[in-house]
Amino acid sequence: MDPMRPADTNAASGKSGPNLMLVVLAAIIAFVVIFVLRNDNPTEIDFMLFDWDTTVRWSIFIALIIGIVLDRVFSIWWRRRGKRKNDND
Predict the structure, then answer these.
(1) What's the CA gap between 23 and 38, in Å, rounded?
(2) What is the pLDDT of residues 12-59, one digit of tens each?
(3) C-alpha distances in angstroms, 69 versus 14, 46, 64, 74, 82?
(4) 52, 44 contact by CB (below 8 A)
(5) SS3 for 77?
(6) What is the Cα 73 distance to its own chain's centre?
(7) Sign of CA dihedral 30, 32, 34, 37
(8) How far is the C-alpha of 32 from the C-alpha of 38, rounded, in Å?
């Protein structure tokens, strides 16, 4: 071991530069920011019971939220259904 080099450096292990996950996270954040800034076109949502004037970014965001909620509700129902089915056997 070289007495002039500190023991806590990463040069001997070959690790240098930023963390890969940090780079991936920065790229994802950049893509999301670009997506939000580019999708500001106005649009009208005409659903069964209401009409709504909004931008494309908000309509996509609301659709994602509704999809996540429906997925969670369906998953909970499916697990309870399976548990009841196994309890009856």
Answers:
(1) 22
(2) 555 677 899 999 999 999 998 898 889 889 999 887 888 989 999 888
(3) 45, 21, 9, 9, 20
(4) yes
(5) helix
(6) 19
(7) negative
(8) 10
Whole-number CA gyration radius for the chain: 25
> Which token pair is 20?
């890969």
**For the chain, what are the domain ranges?**
53-89
Counting every residue written for the chain, the total comes to 89
Distance, CA of 39 to CA of 68 (rounded, Å):
21
Residue 75 DSSP class: H
* Residue 53: closest CA among 62, 44, 61: 44
Helix H or strand E segment including 55: strand 51-55
* pTM exceeds cut of 0.90: no
Helix, strand, or coil (residue 28): helix
Run of H or E residues at 11: none
For residues 51-69, one letter each, b for 16 or more C-beta atoms within 10 angstroms of the residue's C-beta and e for the rest, the string is: eeeeeebeeeeeeeeeeee
Task: Dig out the tokens for 89 from the structure.
Answer: 């056997």
